[in-house]
């Protein structure tokens, strides 16, 4: 029989923590109520037994696409008049993602106990972030939960499409880069040593470039060097993560990312589209401006952009305009700032934000195509250069050997 751990308050208002053995969570709640405990949180106590199902749930991540599909299905059920408890039960049964499935089951149990949907979801931040919970809360308060869920689904679908576009732009160069490195290492380790033995038989002076390539070959054929190289890479990655975790490091690196050749423009347009889409969805759903800006700040994904959003939030508190604050930081395109300014002046900020998001999402799509067309020939040159350097290092000594033979 499983053991449940509950936290709550007794009849005197004091906080208490209790353990109880029960066949199910409902039985545990019944027993704890009989003890005079008003339950605030109830969880099953886990031992040290390895459960493959729990391990799979822990290792699974909830993607933007998973949340978009869940939101779209949930909206359809709510719009059809299906009750929350029954709808969440149906969604939990059909959910293919084990982590999201467990979260929906827990949310359903909380809703059955009288907890609001947004408060129940807030207990599962790995599945439902602050943006998601805030929109759900706005839908509950305004009585338009189905509309908010549809907006959430549209928002998440747009974000997923943006992610796929960026991923598609990176897939080709990463694949070609890995292929080039593998070919280079294979030819350096297995092919060059064979030619080195031939060169030694003729006792000819080798060109400097060939000597360098043979030195690289000797280095790569030593297992200890691979261990050292792996240690250096791991240490560099660890130091980078530590530096990026600091406020100064994160701000410095994120500013560098925005100014990177080729990719900087794409990152800026993606951030603009995401900011406008998220902010517009929050505003349209009735979330207060200051709260919406706080959520957008936390979900920006770039510290420089987060700083600009936070500055605009402070401007709003003192009676200023969002567009003026964003303009000071120079992280968003001028056209986007001007359109936001027009939206503020006309009182149609949410509609203008959606138009800006649509525009820059199209811009991202065009930028991805342009970036791919530029990267493809560069990667071909890179691959050819890697292979060509080995071939040149092998053929250059041939001329010296011909001189020795003559």
From TrEMBL:
Residues 145-172 form a coiled coil. It is a multi-pass membrane protein. It is found in: Cell inner membrane; Cell membrane. GO terms for biological process: protein secretion. The keyword Signal does not apply. One of its GO terms (cellular component) is plasma membrane. Residues 70-193, 275-397 form the Type II secretion system protein GspF domain. The chain crosses the membrane at residues 169-192, 223-243, 378-396. It comes from Halomicronema hongdechloris C2206. This is Type 4 fimbrial assembly protein PilC. Signal peptide: none annotated. Its main location: membrane. Keywords: Cell inner membrane, Cell membrane, Coiled coil, Membrane, Transmembrane, Transmembrane helix, Transport. Residues 1-24 are annotated as: Disordered. Belongs to the GSP F family.
């Amino acid at each position: 029989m499983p053991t449940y751990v509950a936290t709550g308050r007794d009849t005197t208002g004091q906080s208490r923590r209790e353990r109880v053995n029960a066949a199910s969570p409902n039985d545990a709640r019944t027993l704890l109520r009989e003890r005079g405990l008003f339950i605030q949180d109830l969880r099953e106590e886990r031992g040290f037994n390895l459960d493959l199902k729990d391990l799979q749930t822990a290792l699974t991540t909830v993607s933007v696409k998973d949340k978009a599909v869940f939101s779209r299905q949930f909206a359809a059920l709510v719009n059809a008049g299906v009750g929350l408890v029954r709808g969440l039960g149906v969604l939990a049964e059909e959910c293919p993602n084990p982590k999201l499935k467990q979260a929906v089951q827990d949310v359903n149990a909380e809703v059955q106990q009288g907890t609001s949907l947004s408060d129940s979801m807030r207990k599962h931040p790995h599945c439902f972030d602050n943006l998601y919970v805030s929109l759900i809360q706005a839908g509950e308060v305004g009585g338009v939960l189905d509309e908010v869920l549809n907006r959430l689904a549209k928002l998440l679908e747009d974000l997923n499409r943006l992610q796929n576009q960026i991923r598609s732009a990176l897939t080709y160069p990463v694949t070609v880069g890995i292929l080039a490195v593998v070919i280079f290492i294979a030819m350096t380790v297995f092919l060059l040593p064979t030619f080195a033995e031939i060169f030694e038989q003729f006792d000819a002076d080798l060109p400097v470039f060939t000597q360098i390539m043979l030195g690289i070959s000797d280095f790569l054929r030593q297992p200890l060097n691979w261990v050292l190289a792996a240690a250096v890479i791991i240490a560099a990655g660890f130091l980078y993560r530590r530096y990026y975790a600091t406020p100064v490091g994160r701000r410095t690196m994120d500013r560098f990312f925005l100014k990177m050749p080729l990719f900087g423009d794409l990152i800026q347009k993606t951030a603009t589209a995401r900011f406008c889409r998220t902010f517009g969805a929050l505003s349209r759903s009735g979330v207060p401006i200051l709260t919406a800006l706080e959520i957008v700040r936390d979900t920006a994904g770039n510290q420089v952009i987060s700083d600009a959003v936070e500055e605009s939030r402070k401007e709003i508190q003192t009676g200023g305009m969002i567009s003026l604050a964003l303009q000071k930081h120079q992280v968003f395109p001028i056209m986007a700032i001007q359109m936001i300014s027009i939206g503020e002046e006309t009182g149609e900020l949410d509609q203008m934000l959606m138009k800006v998001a649509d525009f820059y999402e199209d811009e991202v799509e065009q930028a991805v195509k342009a970036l791919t067309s530029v990267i493809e020939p560069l990667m071909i040159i890179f691959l050819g250069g890697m292979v060509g350097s080995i071939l040149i290092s092998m053929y250059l000594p041939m001329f010296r050997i011909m001189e020795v033979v003559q």
